[in-house]
Specification:
The complex is a heterotetramer, with 2 copies of chain A (about 260 residues) and 2 copies of chain B (about 290 residues).
Chain A (H helix, E strand, L loop, with lengths): L5 H11 L6 E4 L5 H9 L6 E4 L3 E2 L13 H5 L3 E2 L2 H10 L5 E4 L3 E2 L5 E2 L2 E3 L4 E4 L6 H7 L2 E5 L25 H4 L7 E5 L3 E5 L6 E6 L5 H6 L7 E7 L5 H18 L9
Parallel strand pairs in A: 1-2, 1-5, 5-10, 10-11, 13-14
Antiparallel strand pairs in A: 2-3, 3-4, 6-7, 8-9, 11-12, 12-13
Chain B lengths: L2 E2 L2 H8 L5 E4 L8 H9 L5 E5 L4 H8 L3 E6 L3 E2 L3 E2 L1 H9 L6 E4 L2 H12 L4 E4 L7 H4 L4 E4 L6 E6 L5 E10 L4 E3 L6 H7 L2 E10 L10 E3 L6 E4 L17 H10 L3 H13 L5 H5 L9
Parallel strand pairs in B: 1-15, 2-3, 2-11, 3-4, 4-7, 11-13, 13-15
Antiparallel strand pairs in B: 5-6, 8-10, 9-10, 11-12, 12-14
Helix pairs in contact in B: 1-2, 2-3, 3-4, 5-7
Classes of the chains: A alpha/beta (about 260), B alpha/beta (about 290).
Chain lengths: ~260, ~290, ~290, ~260
């Protein structure tokens, strides 16, 4: 097998954090690869929910959009989008929300709205979609994102969704009762918030990654947990399953017919 | 009461310059054929509403027909940014565009409030979110029982909602199934609704009693437009053309290439071309 | 996560004296077998919630198990009054009962708010209505955009919701179809949900994608109770026993006759009798 | 054919007020006989909605409850009860609401809640059900009710649903934009509100009914329109259709199987 790429490592490490009993909200741009890898390996009964209304879906290939037909074909049920946001997300039925970001700060606050000023942006990004309420309504939030100085910034340009604010008990002070960001998986490391300050700290480095590499790709001074471990490498099963999933997906999206089509 | 019309007539009779229009569809059943007819008729100064403005709104914006956009996620789903919209926002090309930006939850609940005849939607949202500071249409209300501060947004009430559905029966009732998105809410919230359908059938015999059906008296015009959702899809009829979404990223990257594409594929085209486009995407096509 | 249990166990494990309980069903799928088990177990001091308290609430009230009733229409549908409830309200027999009375619209929207995780429902209602003067849980909120005064009621959040459904699959997902009432909302608004079903099937193959399904992780206990809705009905299984509703009017008219009926048909009976009761009401029974 | 009964006359006169384009909300206790008679005679395309969620229903026999199975079997679609009250009633999609009453006053205010004091009632009635919002959300309200001194009262004991209040522009002053009660059909007469005062006035008397009879069964001093006509008698078609409907209904509810059952 060819060597594990950083992206594969990130996906596999994120998948491991999901369990069989989780009900996961897979928002736009979120790593549905990680969610489906978990389903295809150690968490076969995990419930995946896409904001298009598909509940308990089990796609054979990764959807390109969050509303591909296969999500509905394989779902336990498909509800309207208002119902999805009212009964299922706002109703507190989701245990884990998965978010990606264009910019993130050390407290897990996220920007996917604009680079630059809101009214005269340097880059107009797609916007938040479901993120503002995913960030506050799900039991906890997992974030996956590749590290870079452009993305890991001292100060985000726009608060698309709230993480831990300026740290400490900021969430509670806003009346938010959910945990917020509890896990950040990057191509280099696994981060978790410090129990007191809520600042993300590195808890494990992927094999071969140095502290210098982590700092070079991060716009703030990186803090480490007291004990920093090495992230366990992917197993053969994880890697094979992920690669097969991507191969099926690539074939389907490049215009070939889905193999499951009847 | 639903009138069966051809697409050009349904658009011409129901959409006027300056109208607030929602062409809805959450990835599935996006009314591409209707949007292209709107572009051919050059009906401009529109305020467009949609949770997920994607290719058709990129096209309408790029053709200069849009004054304002009310939205919650403006992207080419799974591919990237909307390059014509970016050009309008960042550079004012071909004209500046006003934005009213919300979250999905807010938009979904605002459509719901519109369908429910309410002036506003009240929900638990926007806590700690930056949009509150830039959108004066995000306000707060205190729960009169618990005192909790809840977010409030105005109900969405389009002049016209346009959707694509699987089929109508001869009486004019409309069936939507699969990923049903916010289409029912968008239709019921609107003053008028135009629906394109894959086909018209005699009746909906043996349909599940709780399937999503819009009775004929909630719809103004129905036009048959087979393939009319392409490159989006119609559950039970044809698949999503994911390759076309990837291709759009290149077309929209350049103003000239965009204009040339629109000239060939929209301005000089007819609604009938959609049927050909989906021929290879039908499940029974192999 | 749904546990398959027998009915006695599902009731005993999920409902405690003093709980706030909604046994829902809008004419269709009323959980009679579950209510009778609740009576046999003599779980009392209950606050009962239901839009249309009918026979089963008349029975629970007549047996003295109910402290308070939150409701919007207390009648024997199409027949007349609920005579046991009247006796409790007018004469305090067998015990006085506290009433919190709403309109259907308020109750439906309050369940909806409960399912949606909100503290209250806000709606256009109760204008000029007398209930506002006698129910302190009807308040007002001003729309922050238009200033319109809207009615507000607290969200309904039962400790336990009990419903009857057509079937579950082996994983524990539950299907409800036909007149679906407020069952989904009542289940999602509750802390725990108990569901009785006509049957358990292997899977829901070929089910319409938008049918009303409660995923297994929204339900605490599932008990098989064939015929368990009788004299209400289960769409696709057996018809409504209209004659039994007419008969109830006579049984409930007299305290002694009521008590004798309850002794024979509930206290000394077992859930299995429901299956026999519907034998003649099945569509394939002729 | 046997002579027309007062109840038949009432039902037929009410049915005539409904048209093919109407969307009618048939609440609990409302005269679904009149609605279905209209559908089976002059208004075949009328849309009947029962608050159980059944839209566009066409039952072969009259339902005993508002949620009988046949309402769903013959409906265009069946929605949840919250949706029914939110999108269809509150959303302003209903042209005519049909109400009955235990007590009514001269301004069409209705009581179906209690006789006597609310907290210590002489008779506890079922309550309002959908009526409070039917009365204000439907385009207009039709009421059918047999006349009696007990039911037609100077002052109702409880305002279950609002008609014209104390008359005049009372509705508008409460911010209600719909017309409210525009028609009252009894076993003796047809009443419509005076354009100015909104007090119900008799516009036609059923054949053979005297003004004395109307006054004897009414607790307030009856007013008459300038021109009082004779209500046109039922046609053979109307009467036969109504009697057939009732015969089918009686057979079905007394335990016989519905003839349409397959």
């Amino acid at each position: 097998m060819s060597p594990v790429t950083p992206t594969e490592f990130m996906t596999i490490a994120a998948a491991r954090a999901l369990s069989n009993d989780d009900v996961v909200f897979v928002g736009i741009g979120a790593p549905s690869a990680a969610c489906n890898l978990a389903r295809l390996t150690h968490a076969p009964d995990i419930t995946l929910i896409y904001e298009s209304g598909t509940i308990g879906t089990a796609p054979e290939v990764l959807p390109l959009s969050i509303g591909d037909g296969e999500l509905c074909d394989t779902a336990v049920t498909t509800v309207s989008v208002p119902e999805m946001f009212r009964y299922w997300l706002q109703g507190g039925r989701i245990s884990v929300g998965f978010l990606g970001a264009a910019q993130i700060d050390r407290f897990g606050n996220i920007n996917t709205t604009v680079i630059g000023d809101y009214d005269t942006p340097k880059t107009r990004l797609p916007g938040g979609g479901g993120a503002p309420e995913i960030a506050t309504s799900c039991g906890k939030i997992f974030i996956t994102m590749k590290q870079s100085r452009r993305g890991f910034v001292e100060k985000i340009d726009f608060f698309t969704s709230f993480g831990h604010g300026t740290g400490g008990d900021d969430r509670a002070r806003l009346g938010i009762t959910t945990e917020g960001p509890v896990l950040l998986v990057t191509d280099l490391a696994v981060w978790k918030p410090d129990p007191e300050t809520k600042e993300f700290t590195v808890v494990s480095l992927h094999p071969g990654v140095t502290r210098d590499q982590v700092q070079e790709t991060c716009g703030w001074t990186v803090r480490y947990a007291e004990t920093v471990e090495e992230t366990p490498p992917p197993t053969d099963l994880e890697l094979t399953t992920l690669r097969d999933l991507h191969a099926r997906t690539h074939a389907a999206h490049s215009g070939a017919r889905p193999t499951a089509a009847a | 009461m639903a009138q069966f019309q051809d697409l050009a007539q349904a658009i011409a009779e129901n959409i006027r310059p300056g109208d607030t229009v929602a062409l809805e569809g959450f990835t599935h059943l996006i009314p591409h054929a209707a949007a292209h007819e709107l572009i051919r008729q050059q009906i401009g100064d529109l305020t467009l509403i949609r949770m997920t403005p994607d290719l058709i709104y990129d096209q309408l914006i790029g053709m200069g027909l849009v004054k304002k956009l009310i939205f919650s996620y403006a992207g080419n789903p799974g591919v990237g940014l909307l390059r014509r919209m970016r050009d309008a926002v960042e550079n004012g090309w071909p004209r500046p565009i006003e934005l009213e930006e919300h979250s999905h939850s807010a938009m979904a609940q605002a459509y719901e409030a519109g369908a429910a005849g309410l002036p506003c939607a009240i929900f638990r949202g926007y806590k700690g979110a930056g949009l509150k500071a830039v959108n004066p249409n995000i306000r707060e209300v205190a729960c009169p029982f618990t005192g909790e501060a809840l977010a409030a947004v105005p109900a969405l009430r389009p002049d016209v909602t346009v959707i694509h559905a699987q089929r109508a029966n001869r009486r004019g009732d409309v069936l939507i199934e699969g990923i049903i998105g916010v289409q029912k809410e968008a239709v019921l919230a609107a003053k008028r609704a135009v629906v394109t359908v894959e086909e018209v059938v005699e009746d909906f015999a043996d349909l599940h009693p709780n399937a999503c059906v819009l009775p004929r008296w909630t719809v103004a015009g129905i036009a048959t437009a087979p393939g009319g959702a392409n490159p989006s899809y119609a559950h039970g009829y044809y698949d999503r053309d994911n390759a076309a979404y990837l291709e759009w990223d290149k077309i929209a990257a350049d103003r000239d290439r965009f204009l040339a594409w629109m000239e060939t594929h929209v301005l000089k085209a007819r609604p009938e071309i959609f049927q050909d486009r989906v021929a290879g995407l039908r499940r029974d096509a192999a």
